[in-house]
Amino acid sequence: MISIIEAINLVKSKSKPLAKETVFPIEKSGGYLLYKDVFSPINMPPFRQSAMDGYALNLHDSFIYTIIGEVKAGDDNQPILKQGEAVRIFTGAAVPDTANAVIMQEKVVTNGSELVIENQLPKNHNIRAIGEQVKKGDLALAKDTKLTPAAIGYLASLGISHVSVYKKPSIALLTTGNELIDAGQELSYGKIYESNSKMLQNALYNLKFYDLHFHKVEDIYEKTLATLHEVILQHDLVIITGGISVGDYDFVGKALHELQVEEHFYTVKQKPGKPLFFGTKNNTLIFALPGNPAAALTCFYAYVYVALQKMMNNDVIELPRVKAKSLSNFKKFGDRPQFLKAIYNDNQVEILEGQSSAMQQTFALANALVFMPEDIENIEIGNTVDVILLPN
Length: 392
Description:
The protein is 20% helix and 30% strand. With 392 residues, it is an alpha+beta fold. It has a six-stranded mixed β-sheet, with no helix packed on it. It has a six-stranded mixed β-sheet with strand order 16-13-17-20-19-18, sandwiched between helices. The protein has a five-stranded mixed beta barrel with strand order 21-24-23-25-27. Belongs to the MoeA family.
């Protein structure tokens, strides 16, 4: 049995960026990292552009100008201005080549075709220069940049429709257990509705991992072995729930051993989630999570989340941690460090009732986990505690 820190460090060291490339339309590339540098195919802006609504001027010594026309955004006309002439212009419109300043509309007085300004303007005032944001051929976004909505909007403004991104992992979700049935079936005695796959599916979708493949295996060794062999060959990441303990019908560990999966750890000194397996075969990562739902989800956020971020070559690979004042008392039994389901708000945290590894109802309310180290036995109201913030 190893410590939490040892386990997390092993996940970090054994998880590598996929370094697989795929090309996506930019509107579907949110959350991905750029696989290669993107260079601008155009100047941005591609023409001298008005920074505001107002008037484009051909400057002269007087404060009085003659208005000779109008240029709207999208117009391709090029009125020729003599010194002392102006055109009405709007934000984003192309500034005529013969204009050398734009004055905002609030700074002028107009009377018919006559325009009066208050002060002399410097040349190029309120004019966005060609290529001011980025020049044609220059680096627009560097490799490994995360594609946020703003980044996608920026690339779209350059006329870029598709980008090369790191391929996200193909993930197999495998659940085991003869007692599990699907929702909609009659709940006969001794059966329970399978929830882990739906829970983990949603957690993965929430993190924008969509390449998921589902497998359900009965507690029969040969079927467990065959299914694991297949999914390890076909996917980058395999997540198994259940069957990793030491019961007579827990076949996952035995099957992984027979398949020559390299074990990096099995059992972690923690609660919940002591029976946790992590291993690799070739380039595939394999996690076998506990069958109890709350334990499975806790281990997902503490370990699988880290592996996913490493596979995507992200810089930030662990969930954020903050310090908060406890609104609750809690007494720990035993010496294992513990992840406690909790509600965090405004630098305060409430530790919830029902910390059993099977208690999904409590987890349904939680937005955080309070981490209680090995050397802490009691948390009292007002104590400062470590809080792990869960996604969304």
